[in-house]
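RETRY 2/3 - previous attempt timed out on the joint model. Re-submitting the same 90-residue input unchanged.
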Amino acid sequence: MPRDHHFLIGGVKFLWRYTRLRGKAHGWTYHGEKVLIEERLQKRAKLCTEIHEFLHAANPNMSEEAVVNQSEDLSKILWALGYRQQSSEH
Ligand SMILES: [Zn+2]
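RETRY 2/3 succeeded.
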C-alpha cells in the first residue's frame, strides 16, 4: 500500500507521507516541501488531520486556531455527508 504521494498544493509540489510520528502531533507540514501524517490515525481523526495539514500547506500564514477550526468544521461536514476511505487505501 503506497505511503508516499506527491500533490500540488498552491502550485507547489509536496511529498505527502504516512509515517509513524514521535510525540503527540498527528501531522506536520514543512512549508514548500512535505506533509507528514501519523499512519495510525483512522476514520474522522485521519480526515481531520489531512485537511488540517493541507490548510497549513496551502496557507502558510493562517493561524493555528483558524486551521483547527476549519479542519474540524470541514471534516465534520464531509463525515456527515458520508465520505469514507476504503480500508485498504491511504
Ligand atoms: Zn496545526
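The chain has one domain: 4-80. Closing ticket.
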